[in-house]
Specification:
This protein is an alpha/beta fold. The protein contains 14 helices and 13 strands. The protein has a single domain, classed as TIM Barrel, CATH 3.20.20.210.
Length: 369
């Protein structure tokens, strides 16, 4: 059974020949080791070419990702929308850049990526004057078209979007987000509304050009619970989330929500909106077995080998935790094995590869561990 078929079976809450395996993302430090360092790879990931559209460079990056996912024997590959054809970020004198959403990003040389640093939105008026990016700008579908054609029927392609709550949290910075949530709620409402409209258009584009699943990234929770009061999620976040899920459903695909942290306070509400959940963060007290028992008849579960174990544990720890994850979540189908977040730079690659090895060995149906 090929990865695409295997993944589709799991998404339909059925048992394929074995549990599908994937990762939302793999940091460049690991991709280079899996792929093998070459001059072209190094050129493709220089920081000074990540802030503007260059389709030749983008192809090199996508080729590298596809080849690594193939080498790992993954069943599903993720793909985000591309920047527009004419995209060029503003570069500041201190070396930071400003992206399409007004986030000021700084380059992390160790992880070889840009990360949120500050924001151009210091007052509500800054947002009111801001011109939002165009979702349907020429070039948005470059990556999804390229990856879909490259993998064909081999892997399932999942289109990735960024949750409006997370985007606004980063656009405004956490301090301003919380302040304006109470004192300028219209600004928060309008930003989330516009980003939801943006995402609905992106979802339609991604599916039209090859995506067979939508995954929404961006956290709702941290270790102790939700990042803002539960009431805010019920009144503001979930109505917008539902609009995005409905957009995916109109296109005939399912919608999986990623969030780290302790989702237990909002798990019941989420289960009535999305088709699946990713992370199910064990380090925050989320037990994938309990979620499976209660919601396994309607939710696809994606996870949840702890990234803490992948970064600090031994091989034996990874073997034990991966087997336990399969034992709890895989019977009956509807489970996609992955880490509880991603293969980030601090994770030990040998541990990540062990998770895949054990998943393939013990994830064969019927599950017998």
């Amino acid at each position: 059974m090929k990865g695409r078929e295997r993944s589709l079976k799991a998404l339909d809450l059925n048992e394929p020949d074995r549990v599908p395996i994937t990762e939302l993302s793999i940091d460049l430090t690991h991709l280079e080791k899996i792929y093998g360092e070459t001059t072209s790879v190094k050129d493709a990931f220089k920081s000074d070419v990540q802030s503007f559209s260059d389709r030749r460079i983008e192809k090199l990056r996508l080729d590298m990702k596809v080849e690594c996912y193939r080498k790992l024997g993954f069943d599903l590959i993720t793909c985000s929308p591309s920047p527009p054809d004419d995209y060029r970020s503003k570069r500041n004198e201190d070396g930071t850049i400003i992206d399409e959403l007004g986030r000021i990003l700084i380059y992390d040389a160790r992880c070889k990526t840009w990360i949120p640093y500050r924001s151009i939105f210091n007052t509500p008026e800054d947002f009111e004057r801001y011109e939002f990016p165009e979702a349907q700008a020429p070039g948005r579908t470059f990556a999804i078209e390229y990856v879909s054609e490259k993998v064909g029927e081999e892997l399932l392609v999942a289109g990735v979007i960024r949750d409006p709550f997370a985007s606004v949290w980063e656009m405004f910075t956490p301090i301003n987000f919380v302040r304006w949530m109470y004192y300028e709620p219209r600004i928060i409402d309008e930003a989330m509304k516009r980003l939801t409209e943006f995402n609905v258009k992106i979802i339609e584009l991604l599916v039209d050009y090859g995506a067979e699943l939508i995954i929404s990234t961006g956290d709702y929770c941290e270790k102790k619970g939700t990042m803002v009061p539960v009431r805010f999620f019920k009144e503001k976040v979930f109505p917008n989330l539902r609009k995005q899920v409905n957009a995916a459903h109109r296109k005939g695909v399912k919608f999986i929500k990623h969030t780290d942290g302790n989702i237990n306070p909002i798990l019941e509400e989420l289960s009535g909106i999305v088709d699946g959940l990713h992370s199910l963060d064990p380090s925050a007290g989320v037990d994938i077995g309990s979620v499976k028992e209660k919601y396994g008849d309607k939710l696809v579960l994606m996870g949840n080998v702890s990234v803490d174990t992948l970064s600090r544990g031994s091989r034996e720890d990874v073997v034990r935790e991966t087997k336990e994850c399969i034992r709890k979540a895989s019977p009956g189908g509807g489970h996609i094995l992955s880490s509880s977040n991603s293969w980030y730079t601090d994770a030990k690659l040998e541990n990540c590869l062990t998770m895949v090895e054990i998943g393939k060995r013990y994830g064969k149906y019927p599950i017998s561990i």
